[in-house]
Amino acid sequence: MTNYYEFYKKYQVKDVKSVDEFLKKYTKYDRHEGRGKEYAENRLRVYTKEFLEEGYTYMSHFESVTGEVVSFYDIK
């Protein structure tokens, strides 16, 4: 069984300090804020929930402005 917590570490970005900042900086505009305020707020809730439950969150290369998978881990 894959340990996804460890798997996504190779895609970790360290230049943001919150899930909100992660989403705003790394998501393509048309896949986040470009879809409206309600959509962006709901997406923030979903990603925050995942982050709180799993200790990280990630997005696919389709959503990311980098064209690559990116992940955000708790900064300690």
Topology overview:
Elements lengths: L3 H4 L11 H8 L10 H18 L1 E4 L10 E4 L3
Antiparallel strand pairs: 1-2
Labels describing this entry:
globular; 2 strands; two-stranded antiparallel ribbon; alpha+beta; 3 helices; single chain; 39% helix; 76 residues
Task: Explain briefly what this protein structure is.
The protein is of the alpha+beta class and 76 residues long. It has 3 helices and 2 strands.
**Strands, total number:** 2
The largest β sheet comes out as:
2 strands, antiparallel
Helix content: 25-40%
Number of helices: 3
| Percent of residues in beta strands | 5-15%
Residue stretches low in confidence (pLDDT < 50, at least 5 long) are: none
Order of helices and strands: HHHEE
| Category from helices, strands and their pairing | alpha+beta
Q: How many structural domains in the coordinates? A: 1
Radius of gyration, Cα only, in angstroms? 12 Å
Query: What does the average pLDDT come to?
Result: 95
Distance between the termini: 27 Å
Shape: globular
Assembly state here? single chain
Query: What topology, given as strand order, has the largest sheet?
Result: 1-2
